[in-house]
Amino acid sequence: xxxxxxxxxxxxxxxxxxxxxxxxxxxxxxxxxxxxxxxxxxxxxxxxxxxxxxxxxxxxxxxxxxxxxxxxxxxxxxxxxxxxxxxxxxxxxxxxxxxxxxxxxxxxxxxxxxxxxxxxxxxxxxxxxxxxxxxxxxxxxxxxxxxxxxxxxxxxxxxxxxxxxxxxxxxxxxxxxxxxxxxxxxxxxxxxxxxxxxxxxxxxxxxxxxxxxxxxxxxxxxxxxxxxxxxxxxxxxxxxxxxxxxxxxxxxxxxxxxxxxxxxxxxxxxxxxxxxxxxxxxxxxxxxxxxxxxxxxxxxxxxxxxxxxxxxxxxxxxxxxxxxxxxxxxxxxxxxxxxxxxxxxxxxxxxxxxxxxxxxxxxxxxxxxxxxxxxxxxxxxxxxxxxxxxxxxxxxxxxxxxxxxxxxxxxxxxxxxxxxxxxxxxxxxxxxx
Length: 433
Ligand SMILES: *Cc1c(COP(=O)(O)O)cnc(C)c1O
Hints:
alpha/beta, Aspartate Aminotransferase, domain 1, seven-stranded mixed sheet, 16 strands, Aspartate Aminotransferase, domain 2, single chain, 15 helices, four-stranded mixed sheet, globular, binds pyridoxal-5'-phosphate
């Protein structure tokens, strides 16, 4: 067993590193003791002291079949022995091709037939945005430049993807540098819009993740599709979070059998092992970019690590494991278990709302009079700190506690996560109104 000098790692971290979505003054405070994650197995993570925790948010919504999965590891190792990375600009590789074929096969009857690889969720969205704009530019509708997105949406942090975002504390600061987007909160507002200047509409199907796990009421994808058809607008489904079984089906849009023009995938795409993004689109969009080279209809866009062989090997094994481990079939009863356990939260003190979509849960905390806590109190963060002491790692979205275990978690592990969350809420909210 490897031993770690935790004090030294933490000191160097505080000296040299800047963490994402983190107030570094709090992080660097001498009293703050970061968890140094050093190993993992299945739904469990292990820190530098050998303490074990359930991975309550699937390592920021990425992990699918568990950590250190022997077949995931082997697939990556096998590829590593051949080559780690080669250029996808002007060349191809067997793994990326096989993955593209498997991805298209995993969305039958969707009309999606082409795969464009990139690095992560944000770039998968950037690709969809740019393809939308360029498609209309060179297909006789250059007035179509606008985008429609939903309030509270989250589509990534790069400047283009964040233009589509509707979470004010993340996105508003950069509005002067983002492209304008029409933000709507429901379909009535959509129907009132003039679609003639609109290129694309983007939505997180079934559930908005970063908004605090907000489940859409009713069925809206079909109606979105028909509005897009009537107005010749391209429809983007952002399944960066919901893809790969999280909602109980392989992709969230399958619940409504709606057809997008673009499907953005990342996070779980590689099973949570390596960064990888993919944007799937239709033959219609693809055809709209064909032409003589000097017509300049080429999609001049790409990233250095596009089609990365190690990431593609991981993603292929991720898909194979869905088959060989019957992941979705075995997930059904686990989702049932999670639902019945979540029912027990509804009457707990300081629980404002409990939301679930498939294997994703959000528990919103608040005052017992039903109002929200002041976000400055960071109650959600304090509760997650208590959960850590009960063997559960997760990260809140403001005061929403996220429970999103890897799909491999057993019913016993679900129970443990639930128990830890209950204790953490009771302790973390003890002296609160
Ligand atoms: C996480 C997320 C993204 C951004 O993905 P990154 O890999 O973090 O860039 C985009 N859309 C949704 C719905 C997400 O949850």
